[in-house]
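Thread: "does anyone have the structure for this chain?"

Original post by V.I.:
We have the sequence but no experimental structure in hand. Need at least a predicted one for the grant figures.
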Amino acid sequence: MTRHLQHCRICRHEACADIERAFLNGASPREIEAVWKFASYRAIYRHAHARGLFLTRAEKFHGRIANTVAAAARIIEKVDSARVTGRDVLAAVRISMKINALEEKDRLTARSQK
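Reply from O.Q.:
Generated one for you, tokens below.
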């Protein structure tokens, strides 16, 4: 970590906290590169790996997924009593399936990075 701190342009950047916040909120390294005028998006990847930001970002993403899946599940559960169309139910099921697939993919990616 000491070597990283000595050489990392992001750690020494005056907007380091803002850059990390943008990354944690889902901005891609290329977007960050463009906004803060870095020479290469690779520096953002190196910084994020060194600081453990990928794991924090994944945990934040999982929380959002869980909330969305729960909302879709509530719609599906109320299919008998709610005034929804078959189209609404199928849309909720599709969303739930897509989110579950994304969550599984993200879980596998997180395991491979350890």
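V.I.: this helps a lot. Helices lie at 2-7, 16-24, 29-36, 42-51, 53-77, 86-113.
O.Q.: and The mean pLDDT is 81.
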